Amino acid sequence: MGPRIGPAGEVPQVPDKETKATMGTENTPGGKASRDPQDVRPSVFHNIKLFVLCHSLLQLAQLMISGYLKSSISTVEKRFGLSSQTSGLLASFNEVGNTALIVFVSYFGSRVHRPRMIGYGAILVALAGLLMTLPHFISEPYRYDSTSPEDMPQDFKASLCLPTTSAPASAPSNGNCSSYTETQHLSVVGIMFVAQTLLGVGGVPIQPFGISYIDDFAHNSNSPLYLGILFAVTMMGPGLAFGLGSLMLRLYVDINQMPEGGISLTIKDPRWVGAWWLGFLIAAGAVALAAIPYFFFPKEMPKEKRELQFRRKVLAVTDSPARKGKESPSKQSPGESTKKQDGLVQIAPNLTVIQFIKVFPRVLLQTLRHPIFLLVVLSQVCLSSMAAGMATFLPKFLERQFSITASYANLLIGCLSFPSVIVGIVVGGVLVKRLHLGPVGCGALCLLGMLLCLFFSLPLFFIGCSSHQIAGITHQTSAHPGLELFPSCMEACSCPLDGFNPVCDPSTRVEYITPCHAGCSSRVVQDALDKSQVFYTNCSCVVEGNPVLAGSCDSTCSHLVVPFLLLVSLGSALACLTHTPSFMLILRGVKKEDKTLAVGIQFMFLRILAWMPSPVIHGSAIDTTCVHWALSCGRRAVCRYYNNDLLRNRFIGLQFFFKTGSVICFALVLAVLRQQDKEARTKESRSSPAVEQQLLVSGPGKKPEDSRV
């Protein structure tokens, strides 16, 4: 009868070979599973299709949590007083932990239980996401006016122009500082840096182990389809991250501990801080749920034996003429497949860790000798630098340049920019396949795509809004006299040096950093049907004493944000045309046995040379355009006002610089490919007379056509 028919409680001590063979074959998706419940249960997780589904959802959630910080970068800056350089460094720390360990994935390979390693990595990512929210819970509630006392009714009084004797005591920013405050700030920032590092470490095993697991146990004909589905679902992650950021930033940051009297801020107020931490909680929960199935997948599962029926029908219609002259990948002999895996990837399991570290630099230098590989990787470094800077600071750039809210900026990016990236990648792959492009054709397509991207980037220098006039910051005394920071009209006022409660004079479109700096001594609230409007009156520094409105002055060209982002999206789509052809150039530019290692080296260089330094470079460039810093304990904190023209020229200029570098590299790639093609034709023309001479010597019976290769 065998052990299968025995009682459920009896477990055979030594399973025989037939039992193992039956377990390995009958539990496949196409086979007939045994009726015993003990055998039916594991068969659910012996299905590669289920693994593809789970891995798609996991990578979607992982990219959502890693991309969420970029959607709320300006909010985190305002909440914790960070400069753009510091926030860029924070965003790049996601790559530090990833880069430090990604090389060892090639070493461990199939030695470990890959699904469980993916599960452990996902749990670490979820814990890192929870750690990112910790600064919100250990920090004091957000006070949008540092000069205001604890009780909210005096917030407005602290910003008014009051006589020195009756004004609330306002000490300079250093007076409110203590060693505890400074230590708390450093600990909060340190926690976020540690969390970002752990996010990178947790993501190390997810993609490499998942792709190799699918490729090992899927049918050879189905593997490309599964990987295509995986990448298509995964690429929606950043778009969902920006969509989630758009929703969360509409909620107030202290939604879990709102004051009794509520808050007087609106989402358009420059002091508004959204619930940035809530998105990390949601994304971490999604990652934790997606990690559960990986602890039930086996270390190895039976290889899929059947090709998908609908894929077979599609191939029969589209590729039947082309497949007649080609050998199907599934018909390769086992010997041929093992011969291709020669080199470091194959010998890595036979090396110790120390030996692997010693061998790796030599193999790295050997791979970098290929000129096509080196030039294509350099061009991709330029493209990735552009993408890293754009993804990190584009929301903040749109906020400052066009005076829109963080929520609206994230919504536009999630709806326009990321779909255009996906379209560009897909179109590039379709062009390579339909036009049957060789190396020269792939190089020409890359160069054409980048030239068009560069062309459509030129109008971006001229689409934007100039900075409006700010009293005491933008000095245009000839047009509007009395814009000094402390004019004579407010000598009687006791204005706080570090206060920030902007008001706008609608008649002259001049902005003051507080009502006190405008000389206003009273406040009026005008109730309307949908919202209340706050006015400040009796303003001695305003022309004709007109009342001023609470909040920053509205921009006159906010409508240009949509054309600007459409051009950015078009340029992103054109740049992403190069994704597939450049990847093909890398695969065809190195030896067959070095392909896997070349791809690993490519991603390592992209992380080290692009994704790590680029956010810091862009953040430093943005900081150089700041014209008014907030001070915290004597140090520069967040920037309150930028020179918009300088900000646009430097941010778009950096993007233009990286795009130009990519164009130069692809031009050199095309030149090298044409030179190699020319040399190959020369060798072929030199060898053809020798072939004809051999034909004449062998006899006139053979025709010249028989010698064609």
UniProtKB/TrEMBL annotation:
GO MF term list: prostaglandin transmembrane transporter activity; sodium-independent organic anion transmembrane transporter activity
Origin: domain of life: Eukaryota
Principal subcellular localisation of the protein: membrane
Alphabetically ordered keywords of this record: Cell membrane, Disulfide bond, Ion transport, Membrane, Transmembrane, Transmembrane helix, Transport
Family matches, as Gene3D superfamilies: MFS general substrate transporter like domains
CC terms in the record's Gene Ontology section: apical plasma membrane; basal plasma membrane
Keyword Transmembrane helix: yes
Chain residue ranges for the region called Disordered: 1-38, 319-342, 679-709
Membrane protein topology class: Multi-pass membrane protein
Protein's name in the database: Solute carrier organic anion transporter family member
Species this protein is from: Pan troglodytes
Gene: SLCO2B1
